[in-house]
Design a protein that fits this description.
58% of the residues lie in helices and 0% in strands. The protein has 137 residues and is mainly alpha-helical. It has one domain.
Length: 137
C-alpha cells in the first residue's frame, strides 16, 4: 500500500454526521463504563481541573453523555472515554509530571472528532461555567 491508497476504501466517515444507533457499544460494557464514570468523574475532575488543559473538553463530553437528546452510540463512546479518564490504571500514569495526561488528551481529541455535531453548544457552555466554578474553588 502506498500513501495515495486508502487503507479501507469501503469505509467512509463524516465527523459532522450523527452517530448511527446500530453502531453503539455493547450494552453491558456501556453500563459498566457509565457506572465507573458516575462514581469517579466529579472527584477526579475537581482534583485535576486546574492542572489539565483539556478539562473543559472533558466536561463538555460529560454534559453530552448526560443529555437525553444525545444518541445512544454517542453516549457509549463518551462514557468509554470518560471511563478511561477516571480509571486509575492508565497507559501513561497521570502522576508523571508533564506527560501524565497526554494519553487522556489523545483519547478526548479523537472522541471530539468522532462526536461531531452530537456535542452541542449547550454542552460546551455548561462545561465552561462548571470549569470556571471549579477553578475558582
Amino acid at each position: 500500500m502506498n500513501g495515495r491508497k486508502k487503507a479501507s476504501p469501503s469505509v467512509t466517515f463524516d465527523p459532522q454526521a450523527e452517530i448511527a444507533e446500530d453502531r453503539a457499544l455493547v450494552p453491558a460494557v456501556m453500563r459498566l463504563n457509565e457506572q465507573r464514570v458516575v462514581a469517579g468523574f466529579w472527584p477526579k475532575i475537581r482534583k485535576v481541573a486546574a492542572r489539565v488543559p483539556f478539562a473543559r473538553e472533558v466536561l463538555s463530553v460529560w454534559y453530552c453523555a448526560q443529555d437525553e437528546e444525545t444518541p445512544l452510540a454517542a453516549k457509549g463512546m463518551a462514557f468509554a472515554a470518560l471511563a478511561y479518564f477516571v480509571m486509575p490504571v492508565d497507559a501513561i500514569p497521570d502522576f508523571i509530571a508533564g506527560i501524565g495526561y497526554t494519553d487522556d488528551a489523545a483519547v478526548f481529541a479523537a472522541l471530539l472528532a468522532i462526536l461531531g455535531k452530537n456535542l452541542k453548544p449547550r454542552h460546551k457552555d455548561a462545561a465552561r461555567r462548571a470549569i470556571d466554578g471549579l477553578r475558582d474553588d
